[in-house]
Amino acid sequence: xxxxxxxxxxxxxxxxxxxxxxxxxxxxxxxxxxxxxxxxxxxxxxxxxxxxxxxxxxxxxxxxxxxxxxxxxxxxxxxxxxxxxxxxxxxxxxxxxxxxxxxxxxxxxxxxxxxxxxxxxxxxxxxxxxxxxxxxxxxxxxxxxxxxxxxxxxxxxxxxxxxx
Amino acid sequence: xxxxxxxxxxxxxxxxxxxxxxxxxxxxxxxxxxxxxxxxxxxxxxxxxxxxxxxxxxxxxxxxxxxxxxxxxxxxxxxxxxxxxxxxxxxxxxxxxxxxxxxxxxxxxxxxxxxxxxxxxxxxxxxxxxxxxxxxxxxxxxxxxxxxxxxxxxxxxxxxxxxxxxxxxxxxxxxxxxxxxxxxxxxxxxxxxxxxxxxxxxxxxxxxxxxxxxxxxxxxxxxxxxxxxxxxxxxxxxxxxxxxxxxxxxxxxxxxxxxxxxxxxxxxxxxxxxxxxxxxxxxxxxxxxxxxxxxxxxxxxxxxxxxxxxxxxxxxxxxxxxxxxxxxxxxxxxxxxxx
Lengths: 164, 339
Fold this sequence. Notes:
- The structure holds two protein chains of two kinds.
- Helix content of chain A is 54%, strand content 2%.
- By secondary structure, chain A is an all-alpha fold.
- Chain A is globular, with a radius of gyration of 17 Å.
- The N and C termini of chain A lie far apart (42 Å).
- Chain B is α+β, with helices and mostly antiparallel strands.
- Chain B has helices at 2-28, 38-49, 52-57, 154-158, 205-211; strands at 86-87, 93-94, 112-123, 127-137, 141-151, 166-179, 192-202, 218-230, 235-244, 263-273, 278-285, 298-308, 311-323, 326-338.
- In chain B, the strands form two sheets. In chain B, strands 3-4-5-6-7-8-9-10-11-12-13-14 form a twelve-stranded antiparallel barrel.
- In chain B, strand 12 and strand 13 form a beta hairpin.
- Chain B starts with a helix and ends with a strand.
């Protein structure tokens, strides 16, 4: 029984302190029939160190340029971007990620719930999108733990994104 | 008949060990995403061949890694690497020793998944080989079957059974996820919780009941597991409570001469994700002591490596506690193929 069981609760407790600090300025929902299940802008830090590990806003622009090509090349994610204004989608994701990481940005897009309504996104497509993002972040040398902090912030949005 | 099984099991172990050795260079040169993914690249080339549109989009991306997008019948794409765990020694999705609440394979909520595994455990005094398969549906239910062959070697000699004696057991398992999603629900502390059952059938009643004084040669284990991945910390924690009468996982039968009741045992696991492909961790598993052999708890430290969705290799050091002769330190090597 020994050490492992004495340490584990301590680790668990120290983790509890980690989740989102505040939900800032959620986008207004234009259609009252849509009730978001997770925040679109869950700010997860109170300084810009995390954003710095992504190369700041400029870094996010490079990241989205890179990953959008991947999403377009992957048959599992391509259908969701093929007929969209991809420059606009990239710009809004840059702003969204930037705000989540406490950056000096403004997100003027809609809630995740509204954006994804009717898109019929599968869980497999959702994970494919995340994996392409992970690969991009690796290629652009974003530290793994920083990647996971962003992805952990995005993960709860699955409730507004995945339909099946 | 017995000899054949032993032989096939040990050749599987050898194969698993070889594969692990083969992956060792990749182990050293990780972090380089482009190197680690030959299989991905081949998959991708095939997919692209049938997708002229995508080909037109890809100018020079063919040498770069992409998320699995091969057309697979069972789980195309699937959950994130390593988030299905591996196959534990009794066939359930989990770590090496403990079942986790995670449903094995990479299948998502509308997919089937399947996997096969081979594991070898080798100590100074015995060897254990295990192999089997799992099917899962919808990230909800997991059915598994595993065969364990315990080659007693020096342990057998100590028990008066000779150095080449083998005890085997077949384990049929089922696990159902009750609630929670260890990966997706990152804004909640609620873990993923699953319940499971393992039916174990030992093929040597004459030994385990006759010579060792266990009560039964077959029995059910029941367990409940809670698993949480704290993604922002790159950390996985699991706790499992198991009601069991098994002596040494059931290899030495079930129940003992003076105590035949179920007891609740605890299994804990912690793993740290180092990057997309590597995890390291440790596990602890308590066991009942019913045969008067001073059966002790087991623990391990492991490294798991998943270069692509289809393959996970696990290498571990296992301390199985005192078995018959002395404390048993073993090398554990396991290879899992997922589809």
